[in-house]
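Hi, here's the filled form for the chain we discussed.

Project: internal
Contact: R.S.
Residues: 272
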Amino acid sequence: MEATEARQPRKENVRDVLRTAGETLGSRFGVRSAPRLPNRVKLLVSIVNTKDEPKLRETIDECSVSLAVSFAGAGTAHSQVLDYLGIGETEKAIVFSLIPESDEDRIMHEIRTRISLYLVGRGISFTVPLTGVSEIVAGGITRAASEKSLDGSKIMTSETRKYDLIVAAVAAGFAEEAMEAARSAGAAGGTIIHAHAMNNAKAEQFIGISLMQEQDVLLILTRREGKLPIMQALFEKVGLKTQAGGIIFSLPVDRTAGISAADEAAATEENA
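And the returned structure, exactly as it came back:
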């Protein structure tokens, strides 16, 4: 029995042999494979119902290794602010997870399936590219996936990204006004985090405006082509020169789950 097993190549070896053979044949016919790049760390943002937070953490841990932090988000008293992230539920768990980029597709697929994010309104999850991260953290996370590398053709760029995340930090009590302004410019909805501003005295001297200590942070995920009108509406309604004293900026978003039925159908087909 042992001799028979010894003569059988391991699946990993067979895969390596086939990959090498394919690359050799491809090079002879002038076909080049996509560049393999070193693993990197990305930020995974998940906004889910509080009862789904344990399952989210379990799902990510089964797929990969991650460093995560969770905090509470809340909607306003009016349901129109909540319908994008779950009708009728005001409490949300916002989870920031640092993950190896090589496991990004698998993690997104499993979150979409196990937490039913393909049912739009159950929650959303998306990844954000990072320009820097602690060397110790990056080393630990990527070491767990050291045998993996990245397919350069799958790395998203400004030309292939479809979504952006708009962040608006406004004085407490102005979140609903901010959301109404965003909706008037085409935003589907958002979620709100109650926050406390740190000592910004030095920055305030240069800005020329005093910022309120108690703040609401509004997160709006939007298609890239709709970003500028929404941000302009926020600037005019709750920007720095208004009583809301809002600070507004946007971040690029790579892969998403739970955003729209069309995107979910495309993602399901891609992973089939």
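Let me know if anything looks off before we file it.
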